[in-house]
Design a protein that fits this description.
The complex is a heterodimer.
Chain A: H1 3-54, H2 60-71, E1 76-83, E2 88-93, H3 103-108, E3 115-122, E4 125-134, H4 137-172, H5 174-187, H6 201-236, E5 244-245, H7 246-256, E6 265-274, H8 276-283, H9 285-303, E7 310-313, E8 318-324, H10 328-348, E9 357-366, H11 371-387, E10 392-396, H12 406-418, E11 422-431, E12 436-447, E13 453-454, H13 456-465, H14 469-482, E14 492-496, H15 499-502, H16 507-518, E15 525-531, H17 532-535, H18 540-551, E16 555-559, H19 569-574, E17 578-582, H20 583-588, H21 591-603, E18 607-611, H22 616-624, E19 629-631, H23 633-636
Parallel strand pairs in A: 5-7, 9-10, 12-14, 14-15, 15-16, 16-17, 17-18, 18-19
Antiparallel strand pairs in A: 1-2, 1-4, 3-4, 6-8, 6-9, 7-8, 11-12, 11-19, 12-13
Helix pairs in contact in A: 1-2, 1-4, 5-6, 6-21, 8-9, 9-10, 12-13, 14-16
Chain B: H1 2-20, H2 27-36, H3 39-54, H4 60-72, E1 75-76, H5 79-83, H6 92-98, E2 100-101, H7 103-116, E3 124-131, E4 136-143, E5 152-155, E6 158-163, E7 170-176, H8 200-210
Parallel strand pairs in B: 1-2
Antiparallel strand pairs in B: 3-4, 3-7, 4-5, 5-6
Helix pairs in contact in B: 2-3, 4-7, 6-7
């Protein structure tokens, strides 16, 4: 029960007790007053009637008549006249009393009508004593009416009182509500500073304290953010040309060389500028650096037509342009264009283009190649280019013969979609420190109509190629929510969704409808992993996803994190439960970079998870970097407690 | 010898009775009266005590006569003059302390003095009368030997006590007895009635008496 409710209940009870007491006291007072009135009436009648009876000079018949006249008015239940010897001279009694009030009232309330007496004399002679008792029926009716009026008026008063109490309490405890929201925000690792400082001292102190605490945590986050940004700038940027460097390219390449990569291949150009030593001697270092800046601009301009292209300076004289989805023909055109522009720049710098010139090795790659292969083959192409007259050379990857053609894959996938042949297998992400499962990772397998089982790696690349990957995700997500696997009950499971699927126009609406109908019935805790490539944009779309997940108590994870030199504010805004990156990425990071990343993630409660941890050697390296949650073959060998 | 012992025992019992009788005005109250009024007030109260003591063992009539004579020596004065009120019922201590009062004050003081002397309250009545002589409302104390007997009138305008039949100058209007009149009861209800006021003036007087108002 909230503090507000406790106070409200307490004060309401207090108010009701007060009102009930006031009603009771009022009623008791009214009861007393009515009874007093009964006595006063009886007494006045006794006095006045005894004076009248005195004039009868002891004539009993006359006195009886006088008594009758009074009694028949109906206001008395008993009148008697007794003589000095206590003998009853005359008596009237009202036997049947009709009371116009409910029986419960009669049972609950006893009204006593006292008997008032007065001496009756005839001249100096004593006649006797007159006794008068008032009728209680009128008193009962009056008292019942008073009680009803009291209950109605106090009922109204109670309602008004409770409403006012509620309003006053709500106003008085408004700062507390804000304090609570702020405290909840802190629990969620959100940084809310309360601008309106409450006037109530206790609340003011708490708010000021929390503001200070939140400011400090925010400052820590900002410091980590700035530090990581600086680290990444140093780590991933060439200081002279402001291009990306070799490390960036290597960290980024896994995104391009994977089975479910957006691009299935392209061309990587490796450019080398010869005669730099001579150039330095001719025009000096500074002018050569300016030349490199000019050439960098040329690269950027030519690469800008290709989405997701990467321009990087590999070393002092070598550059690389990765052009996803670029054909060899287009790449050659581009290479010639770059060569011409570079020659002009070299010429403009006052250098001899026969001595200082650019060679371009082009290598047409595909997603199945490793980073090492790609770079090595590019180098080969560049070496060839240097010996070419045109200084341009193109090499191609040996295209593996596909077991099945695109049409065959399309048919198999469509059939499997129709027959609901997709199912889940689980991998574990293990916390090696506690030796406990951090979460399970859901992977998709495909069972074709002929019974052949294809793993994610086997079918997803082809599914991408034939444009059915989003459909597969849609199918498996529907299956997960509509027919949840009860083996997962009580577990925490992560499902990775691809950039393509998440950016499809209908995905958000479909997920919303699905969550609305089924999310609350899900027997396990779900983490939806989104690619860093999408999340770091912190776009409206991403925010919508975050809000949608939050509504249905679904956590958000980030995968393929490489932490480019952008603002890490999005981590604070979106508060993913973890960040997943390749084990090699973490290992290759400097201690400062990891420390800065840690500062950010620890501040907002984000775990770091290393993926593709293949062996214990890698695991040990990760431990040295203080990364303890792992995923991959090595995780499966950890003994779980 | 046995007769002597019986005599001594009776004497002791008698003596004890005499000494056990509380004075009409106790010492403490007397001190307060002296402080408020003067030494003459003390003498008046002392004389009152002597008067009462003198008739302690007398007949009812002796008691009535002594009390009537004693109080009729007090000067008559209106309530407005003495208390600044139109109508005020003074306690016997106020009345004798101030040594003046109106007809109700005489009746009250006589009533309580006679009650002190052991006269049954049922025999004593405050009687509202009309004085034909003064053509004014008046109050006297009446004594009924029996409920049916002719009452004796103790009037401040007349030093002597007369039977009612001899007081042609008085027309009786209304009798009341503070102790028995307005007997309040919850007869027939089975409940006892508390704190019911019987007569406003009488109730206030009783309260003042209880508080020993002087």
């Amino acid at each position: 029960m909230t503090f507000f409710k406790q106070i409200a209940v307490m004060l309401s009870i207090f108010l009701l007790i007060i009102l009930t007491t006031v009603v009771a006291l009022n009623f008791i007072s009214a009861n007393q007053s009515v009874q007093d009135r009964l006595y006063e009436d009886a007494k006045n009648t006794a006095t006045s009637l005894s004076l009248s009876l005195g004039t009868a000079n002891g004539d009993v018949s006359m006195m009886s008549t006088m008594i009758n006249a009074n009694f028949d008015s109906g206001n008395y239940s008993y009148i008697s006249l007794v003589d000095v010897d206590n003998k009853v001279l005359y008596e009237r009694k009202n036997e049947s009393v009709q009371l116009n009030v409910p029986q419960w009232f009669l049972s609950a309330i006893t009204i006593t009508a006292p008997i008032a007496s007065a001496n009756v004399s005839a001249g100096w002679k004593q006649v006797g004593i007159l006794n008068v008792q008032s009728d209680v029926s009128y008193a009962y009716t009056q008292l019942y009416s008073i009680l009803m009026n009291l209950l109605v008026s106090f009922g109204i008063l109670a309602i008004i009182g409770l409403i006012l109490l509620n309003i006053i309490l709500a106003a008085a405890l408004k700062p507390l509500k804000k304090v609570q929201l702020q405290a909840e925000a802190v629990t969620r690792n959100e940084f809310i500073i309360q601008d309106k400082i409450p006037t109530t001292k206790e609340f003011r102190d708490v708010v000021l304290g929390m503001n200070t605490m939140v400011s400090k945590v925010k400052a820590m986050f900002d410091k980590g953010n700035a530090e990581l940004k600086r680290q990444k700038e140093l780590e991933y940027t060439d200081p002279t040309t402001k291009l990306r460097n070799r490390k960036y390219l290597i960290d980024k390449l896994p995104e391009y060389l994977k089975i479910d990569a957006t691009s299935k291949g392209g061309v990587d150009m490796m450019m080398s500028i010869s005669g730099v030593i001579e150039a330095n001697e001719t025009i000096g270092h500074q002018k050569v650096d300016k030349l490199f800046i000019e050439i960098a601009k040329i690269f950027k301009v030519y690469a800008s037509n290709y989405e997701n292209s990467i321009v990087a300076r590999m070393n002092g004289t070598e550059f690389s342009i990765l052009l996803p989805d670029c054909t060899d023909h287009d790449a050659l055109e581009l290479a010639y264009g770059i060569c011409d522009s570079a020659d002009k720049a070299i010429d403009n710098a006052g250098l001899d283009t026969d001595i200082t010139f650019m060679s371009i090795g082009l290598y047409e790659y595909n997603y199945k190649q490793t980073i090492g292969q790609l770079l090595s083959l590019c180098d080969n192409a560049l070496t060839q280019a240097k010996f070419n007259k045109s200084h341009i050379h193109l090499d191609k990857a040996e295209t593996a013969t596909e077991v099945m053609g695109k049409d065959a894959w399309r048919n198999i996938i469509n059939q499997t979609l129709d027959s609901n042949g997709f199912c889940f297998t689980l991998w574990t992400a293990v916390d090696v420190k506690t030796e406990k499962i951090d979460h399970d990772v859901i992977s998709i397998t495909m069972q074709a109509m002929d019974g052949t089982i294809y793993s994610y790696g086997q079918f997803m690349a082809s599914a991408h190629q034939v444009g059915l990957s989003s459909k597969i995700y849609q199918n498996v997500i529907n299956m997960m929510f509509m027919l949840p696997d009860m083996r997962l009950q009580g577990k925490t499971c992560a499902l990775r969704l691809s950039y393509e699927y998440l950016t499809e126009p209908n995905t958000y609406i479909e997920l919303s409808q699905l969550f609305q109908s089924y999310a609350l019935k899900l027997p396990f805790k779900l983490i939806i992993e989104m690619p860093d490539k999408l999340v770091h944009q912190n776009s409206e779309q991403v925010k919508l996803y975050r809000k949608l997940f939050e509504t249905y108590n679904i956590e958000m994870g980030i995968f393929e994190f490489i932490g480019e030199n952008i603002d890490y504010q999005y981590l604070q805004d979106l508060r993913p439960v973890y960040i997943k990156a390749e084990a090699d990425y973490f290992i290759s990071q400097s201690d400062q970079a990891i420390a800065s990343l840690r500062l950010i993630t620890d501040t907002v409660g984000i775990s770091l998870v290393a993926t593709s941890v293949m062996d214990m050697v890698t695991l040990n390296k990760l431990k040295e970097k203080d990364i303890h949650i792992i995923q991959g073959p090595a995780a499966e060998t950890i003994k779980i407690h | 010898m046995g007769n002597l012992i019986t005599f001594l025992l009776l004497l002791m019992l008698f003596t004890t009775n005499i000494t056990a009788q509380e004075p009409y005005v106790d010492k403490e109250l007397t001190k307060k009266i002296v402080k408020k009024y003067n030494i003459f007030a003390e003498r008046r109260f002392s004389y009152l005590q002597k008067t009462l003591d003198s008739v302690k063992n007398g007949s009812d009539f002796e008691k009535l006569d002594a009390v009537n004579r004693f109080y009729n020596d007090v000067r008559y004065a209106s309530d407005m003059k003495v208390y600044g009120k139109k109508d005020y019922w003074a306690t016997p201590w106020e009345f004798l302390g101030k040594d003046m009062g109106d007809c109700e004050d005489y009746v009250i003081s006589k009533y309580f003095a006679l009650r002190y002397l052991g006269i049954d309250s049922k025999k004593l009545f405050f009687t509202y009368v009309k004085s034909t002589k003064f053509k004014a409302a008046h109050m006297v104390l009446t004594y009924f030997k029996t409920p049916r007997s002719e009452p004796l009138i103790l009037d401040n305008n007349n030093r002597k006590i007369f039977p009612a039949s001899q007081r042609k100058d008085l027309i009786p209007i209304y009798n009341f007895n503070g102790e028995s009149l307005y007997r309040v009861s919850g007869k027939g209800t089975g409940k006892k009635i508390k704190n019911k006021r019987s007569h406003k003036k009488w109730d206030q007087l009783k309260l003042n008496m209880k508080r020993k108002k002087i």
